[in-house]
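Notebook B, p. 112. Complex prediction, attempt 2.
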Amino acid sequence: MPAMLHDTVIIQFAKMLQNLSLCLDKAAAHAASKKFEPTVLLGSRLAPDQFTLLRQIQIACDTAKSGAAQLTSKDAPTHEDREATLDEAKARIAKVIEYLGTFSAKDFAGAEARRISQPRWAGKSLSGSQYAQQHLIPNFYFHVTTAYAILRHNGVDLGKKDYLGPMPFQDPASA
Amino acid sequence: MPAMLHDTVIIQFAKMLQNLSLCLDKAAAHAASKKFEPTVLLGSRLAPDQFTLLRQIQIACDTAKSGAAQLTSKDAPTHEDREATLDEAKARIAKVIEYLGTFSAKDFAGAEARRISQPRWAGKSLSGSQYAQQHLIPNFYFHVTTAYAILRHNGVDLGKKDYLGPMPFQDPASA
């Protein structure tokens, strides 16, 4: 289970963030072809009381970063919410991917039993495995998918493959 | 790791599907208060070339159902795509939650190494753990989140708590 937590929170979250970064490249291309300011997309949302695309990206980044840190009892680096362009949003993503790259499977030893809390939980806690399964993973995918949905809603040419990224398929011949 | 796969694909997916069902109750209440036909929501989408809410629900259901079946080498039951109302969509969800309830952690023994394929993969395959991490889990959350986003976009009064559901918090006193 430490290996699976490591694979989920480090390897797979980094892959999804990389996919999201490539979606932002497609967003920039879309804005250029339609001749509109690409930052308009960063301020877009699906409902007036929902976070913007930029905030979805920032939260996806922070969720991955603090999830990795909390499960391994490390201190996550602080990233100020100062991005204003697609390139800056991509740089934020790149910083988190780099941070995730500093973790090894060994860091997750004992993670599933560790008590995890957050300031807003007023002292209450979840076990590491409860936190990963019921909070971290659903939250991370929530914000990545919502970012994708905002781009799709605004006409960016994206498909499920952009969201999922490449699969490590094994050929029938090599099986 | 079999335990974590079981927890993710059986316990957690069932929880998310139950949360989605409760979101559909809020959708029905919203339609009633605004005096519009609730089936309008089932036909809503965020982009013209994106699946409707009903299809997102059906795919979320099928993803959970076939994920559980494929990882454990079982045959999933067939559910025809014939739903036309919110209640029928909720019944589809309930059938899948019931099906997930038939699995035990033991069913997932060896699941991570099992070769998983799908008709559209033309003979190519993923290991069970690759499939779970890189395909099943991201796809499942994609369709649940997109369903939620379509409802949010249409003014249904939902928040992150409706998506996540209740957390099994432990009080500081009992720690």
